[in-house]
Amino acid sequence: AQSVTQPDIHITVSEGASLELRCNYSYGATPYLFWYVQSPGQGLQLLLKYFSGDTLVQGIKGFEAEFKRSQSSFNLRKPSVHWSDAAEYFCAVGAVPGGSYIPTFGRGTSLIVHP
Amino acid sequence: DVKVTQSSRYLVKRTGEKVFLECVQDMDHENMFWYRQDPGLGLRLIYFSYDVKMKEKGDIPEGYSVSREKKERFSLILESASTNQTSMYLCASSLGRGSSSGANVLTFGAGSRLTVL
């Protein structure tokens, strides 16, 4: 069964600093990988996705993520954090054809941004 | 813009009441999902549906049921609400299995925060 681990429950950064949120997955083949963001009181919004090809993917709001097969990781990065980036971030792994098509979500990482 | 709309953002109910949470999507998506979100536990899948009148149990179906009479609408039902069902409920939808990449991309509603007293 597929699984996702987000080892950091909370991350605190200063505005303007760089950010990296960690995500490790377990899956028997090359998975589909996602990052979603949830602003306070809202549903989840897709930030970016990886299906195949270039392992560095660009998303909305200046975020990027890199798929590293050897490390089973899909870490989310941003070079300079803005106060509006404070939110909950969820990594998810989906299934390729033949699977259940139901993404599995990590438990989330809460990002706190200090002025 | 495509949307998943959850009819109630905030509900307060009493123990034992029957609760309906409604979700409507306007994207002609085949798949619809109900998740429960609790602090520290992330998203847990309650039920999902691949088609009209079709439903499958997720990871935590106990105490819940669902209904999908029309493609665009997926309802979550708490037959007899209990205090441990106080939570944020998220509805989501995605394309059908004919598009494996699309089927994995979920569009979420804004959530329904339920408090059971």
In terms of DSSP E residues, the strand content of chain B is over 45%
Contiguous runs where pLDDT drops below 50 for at least 5 residues of chain A: none
> Sheet bearing the most strands of chain A, described?
6 strands, mixed
- Counting DSSP H or I runs of 4 or more residues, the number of helices of chain B is 1
Order of helices and strands of chain A: EEEEEEEEEEEE
Which chains have the largest interface?
A-B, 24 and 25 residues
Measure the end-to-end span of chain B.
36 Å
Q: Percent range for helical residues of chain B?
A: under 10%
What letter string, H or E per element, gives the SSE order of chain B?
Answer: EEEEEEEEEEHEE
Low-confidence stretches of chain B: none
- Span between termini of chain A: 41 Å
Residue-averaged pLDDT of chain B, rounded? 91
What class would the helix/strand composition of chain B place it in? Answer: mainly beta
Cα shape of chain B: globular
Structure notes:
The complex is a heterodimer of chains A (115) and B (117). Helices cover 0% and strands 50% of the residues of chain A. The termini of chain A are far apart. Chain A is built from no helices and twelve strands. Chain B has 117 residues and is mainly beta. In chain B, strands 2, 5, 6, 7, 10, 11 and 12 form a seven-stranded mixed β-sheet that branches. Chain B is globular, with a radius of gyration of 14 Å. The A-B interface holds A 9, 32, 34, 36, 41-46, 49, 51, 90, 94-97, 101-103, 105-108 and B 4, 31, 33, 40-43, 45, 48, 58, 90, 92, 94, 97, 100-101, 103-111.
